[in-house]
Amino acid sequence: MVAIAATPATRTTGIGTSTLQIAKRALLRYLRSPQLIVLGTIQGAMFLLIFRYVFGGAIPIKGGIPYVDFLVPGFITTGVLFSGMNAASGAAEDLSQGFVDRLRSLPVPRSCFLTGRALADTVWNTWGLAITAAIGFAVGFRLHGSWVDALAAFGLCVVFGFAFEWLFIMLGLIAGTAQAAQGMALLVFPFTFVSSAYIPVNSMPGWMQAFASRQPITYMVDAVRILSQGHAAQVLIGHSAAYEVTHALLWSAAFVVVFAPLAALKYRRS
Fold this sequence. Notes:
Helix content is 74%, strand content 0%. By secondary structure, the chain is an all-alpha fold. The longest helix is centred in the first third of the chain and has 30 residues, at 67-96. The chain starts with 14 loop residues before the first helix and ends with a helix.
């Protein structure tokens, strides 16, 4: 009688465990590249100082809001786009260097790469938001709302970062290389300037105001600005906090609904 060796059944690791492991790997890669932390902090501080002290004196804000209090909420909110370049280049590197191929040979859910990448980059964005907020306070930014509203504004920025991560992950998978991913991510940045992030929308040409006042970044910036600056910002913007926050969250949900499936489709085909 011939003995037949039993083959152990292949077990698939759960989506939660797999996602956390992928996120841990991505975060460790960030921590092992301290130049990313140092350069990112210096770059953020440099741009904030330029806007605060070079352009601030030339940009009047109606309603008695100092320019630094107008600027910092916009700068913090749009900071998630600048941090998003890391998500695009990181996804492209994982694809080009064979990590995705090795992952597919393991008994793990395929979606764990995308969810783990988004989770890790959201954590990284949260750290960057905290650093940028600290620099903002150092250059004179002050809250004119409650601390509860301020924490809600910070939480909104984290939500915005998570939503935009799916766009940048998709761009990284499309680009294929880190250099190309960085170039594609730069195409998003002009939208930060055609918004209310750095100057009031009503100071733009009329044809530009129609777009700038209705694009998602403006809703996100205005939501954070009202929560951090209170009544004066609400009068300046012309809408309530509930109106701006609702529109900002709807846009964030739309980004996830649109770009997460597109990123998953590209990942399956890559």
